[in-house]
Predict the 3D structure of the following.
Amino acid sequence: MTVLHALVLGIIQGVAELLPISSSAHLALTPYLFGWEEQGLAFDVALHLGTLLALCWYFRAEWIEMIGSAWRVARTRRIESAADRRLLYLVAATIPAGVAGVLLNDLAETTFRSPRIIGTTLAVMGVVLWAVDRWAPRARSIGEVSLRDALLIGAAQVLALVPGVSRSGSTITAGRLLHLDRPSAARFSFLLSMPITLAAVVVKVPEAVRASSGDHLPLVVGVLSAAVSAWLTITVLLRYVSKHSFGVFALYRLLLSAVVFATIASRG
């Protein structure tokens, strides 16, 4: 792992994690397409630390409010405010992906990283994202998310264990299917990503540090570049979807899928 490779992978992680185009697919495909040595899932997940830092900073007001809610709920044992309910919904929505991550971790590190699987899921989810975003009503805001909505969006997050599906893509699609407007679907997706990302980082970062064999500079560069690119991506995406559809991302997924299958064919 060179510093340049880590820089490129960090930027890819920061951008692709938050856009509905699958960071895991991009991180798995980058060494495949460019002939680099496979960096491994532990390094990929370690890069999520940068994304997590960007999310914590961008949504700091919401998380400070929900931390206060957690303290108040623990003390009073009552759910009273909108922040209390949002905290409860995020916790409930995180459980399905957490359980699936434990049960399917081995497959996520091996079988699911197949270029053929990634090419297929990129295309299929691209079509699904476009269709749902094109025809689903945009009638509800993030403040109208119910416990049922949160559980359904959380269940959709499980699909992201397969590279190419995209965690943000699956959760944004589920949010739009439940008639959330585009900015609300994206915002809830970003908030929902933080607990499961934190859990993955806690598990995988020590493994990535051990694998670096004492040379931690590439890992540090990767995490910092992921943090900066993720913060910029959040800012741009929330502004973009307030006026535009997710169609451009669906088109990109289809084009990338075509590149993957063309590369597979050219290599026999």
